[in-house]
């Protein structure tokens, strides 16, 4: 059924150029900036930015630097485990997959150098330098089941109207391996699955994301007459993330003519750097009340993608029996991403040395994210692709609110903490919130302190293995149950 030109056109992939992973989803992932927190900050629902003196809270409001009266060094360690269940929506076998991924990391490390000016309205004039983990991208997806549709539907649609020498990165691999083909040479690409479009084909996938965003900062904060704290910082985020996936389709019930099985693998490493600024204040209308406000400027991340893919397609007809594997050359692409503004404000009620209650709200407009492909010599070569993905961002995402609240009760040197946070869905027409529950304990001596915290959350997500407009779209329903323990040690001097 299929001619031998698949072998000849294997080398077409060497000359195909496309954008491999710059999507609205990737923009959202890289635009998340929410410091993971110290043991104290995490224990009170990540609301310490309304109180002040916590180095991880500097990631939200650098005015807290001015709240320190003694120099301090601190560092944290974190362990996270994330069990999950998944299923394919509409799966005729009603099967469910499960798994778990665990990891440890260092959420923050840094120190504050304090100074108390003499004969000045400034009570403190402090500098801070350190590191905050502002986003963690770790995630796994695993599913299997029987649904209508095939990934070849997506490759066929993406190739429509293009000559075989102009196909995209993955589409060229699919064409060279025989997963899609052009029988009439009319730039309309056929697939084996189109011969039985109502058949429920077996699908399975395992994919993983690893990496995150680590931000190094230099900040200044001051306390004016014990009534007004202000601060600013310059921050240097470093991004590194690995995305790998193995996706398969198998005709184990012999429902599609010619087709036997398909395996698609891909790997993308994204790395980059940027710069942003943060500024904020904490007003103290009385010794019992704090009012806070802070802003983070957009970050222009300069990014590099390194990627590769493999397609193996196995079919049988009168001229062929067996698989063909096509492996892409190792590709790369340079581009930039502008992240949104971030604003936050809050209030805290302080009960002297007995503890406090705090609450805050953060706002981010994810619809304002923008890719810029006119970097590193690209010129306007990818203007259409840039416009398309930025339009997709605007249509997919909206502004969101994040709520943080918590409190601490002090018993001489011991502290007990609790809190709650909730993040609004970033997607248009979805106002749901994902809650997280926080708890913690701490011990504070004269020259050192130890804090520990635990968080528990549940969240549901949808995952599209591929996208198609004209064929059935599979959706994996994922239920995650992330839990964290973080411990922080600090020294005062």
Describe the structure.
- With 493 residues, the chain is mainly beta.
- It has a single domain (20-148, 196-492), classed as Porin (Beta Barrel), CATH 2.40.160.60.
- Helices cover 10% and strands 53% of the residues.
- It has six helices and 23 strands.
- The chain has helices spanning 5-8, 24-31, 39-43, 151-159, 169-177, 383-396, and strands at residues 72-88, 97-105, 108-113, 122-136, 139-148, 200-224, 228-250, 259-273, 276-286, 289-296, 300-317, 320-327, 331-338, 342-350, 355-365, 370-372, 399-411, 414-424, 433-444, 448-457, 459-463, 476-480, 483-492.
- It is elongated, with a radius of gyration of 26 Å.
- The model is unreliable at 1-18 (pLDDT under 50).
Key descriptive features of the protein:
493 residues, mainly beta, Porin, 14-stranded antiparallel β-barrel, 6 helices, 23 strands, 53% strand, disordered N terminus
Brief write-up:
With 493 residues, the protein is mostly beta strands. The chain contains six helices and 23 strands.
Chain-wise SSE layout:
Layout lengths: L4 H4 L15 H8 L7 H5 L28 E17 L8 E9 L2 E6 L8 E15 L2 E10 L2 H9 L9 H9 L22 E25 L3 E23 L8 E15 L2 E11 L2 E8 L3 E18 L2 E8 L3 E8 L3 E9 L4 E11 L4 E3 L10 H14 L2 E13 L2 E11 L8 E12 L3 E10 L1 E5 L12 E5 L2 E10 L1
Antiparallel strand pairs: 1-2, 1-3, 1-22, 1-23, 3-4, 4-6, 5-6, 6-7, 7-8, 7-9, 8-11, 9-10, 10-14, 11-12, 11-13, 13-16, 14-15, 15-17, 17-18, 18-19, 19-20, 20-23, 21-22
